[in-house]
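Journal club prep, notes for RB
We'll compare a predicted complex against what the paper describes. Inputs for the S-adenosylmethionine case:
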Amino acid sequence: MEKLTKEEAEQVSRLLGGRSTLGEGLQLYNALIGRGIAFPLEWEEKVLELCIAEDPERGDILQRYRHVLMSLGKPVPAGIESRCAAFAKKSEYGTDHQQAAAQYHQRTGLSDTESEFRELAERMRPFTMTSFERMYALFKAVEFIEAAKISGDIVECGVWRGGSMMLVAHLLVKLRRTSRSLYLFDTYEGLPRPDESKDVDIWGNRAIDGWRPRRTGDESSYWANASLDEVRANMLTTGYPPERLHFVKGMVEDTIPESAPGQIALLRLDTDWYESTRHEMQHLFPRLSLNGVLIIDDYGHFAGARRAVDEYVAEHALPLLLHRIDYSGRMAIKIARA
Ligand SMILES: C[S@@+](CC[C@H](N)C(=O)[O-])C[C@H]1O[C@@H](n2cnc3c(N)ncnc32)[C@H](O)[C@@H]1O
């Protein structure tokens, strides 16, 4: 450690003898800290006393002084204690806790989730369009239907490359619960024509304007397009029994209800548009077991998907707690028959 200069040594003795000004004390502090020389707590105590004499209401200084006294094992005067408490309360009231929580959320990332989930989610990234929050909701929903022994198969409408159902399959294989059938409904030819007025995204963009340039037919496009062969190959990598994988190709408006299972434990709707979501709710929600889980991927993102769900809920006076997974995804447990 570097040694003090003669002048600094004199400044220290003036500080400890109570003969220093605040300016001198701070200059000494800055000089030593700047050269990486530790500034002992006993010296800091004196500098802080000079600061407090100058401005007795500086909350951060009072708190530091209290901390230093406590670290030195010295009693904290009652006046300092009460002013520190008042400052802490004021600064807590003055904090934007919602902004702080949003920052904590970002800083935390996925570190509050199970490591098996994090590993799985990382592997699924190229195969799904959903967010980590929606992947996690699905992960927990699968654990839930298994733990609660909810009868029925697992259905996803709108699978793209199959990532969400791959996550389901991987988890079930890991849990050694592979008796349910998994149903994957899709055109396997991309998104079909959206409704010109109903299918609008959260920012007001009409889906039709995004769909037209990618159109390949009235019921197909290059938007969210993955072939059945590709999705089947992806699903087979999970090790789930192939005989329990059902790939149903075509518009859900044509394939549902005929090709859908009679009882569903977990229903994930992700076909984006009003018409298909309405059709799925109408025909599949009644097949969802009591205490089964419903996940709507696009409730926040696309107005049509939201409208289809809201209409169905209102028409059937359904008690449905649509929990917000993230800005778009919603999840509910079915507690009453439609
Ligand atoms: C956003 S993607 C699905 C994303 C997927 N769930 C994931 O985890 O990444 C929407 C899918 O819905 C399919 N789709 C949309 N409307 C459909 C309809 N009426 N019938 C069948 N499939 C449809 C599209 O082909 C596309 O694969």
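Talking point for the session: Residues 128-130, 158-160, 163-164, 185-187, 190-192, 224, 251-253, 270-273, 276 surround S-adenosylmethionine (CB under 6 Å).
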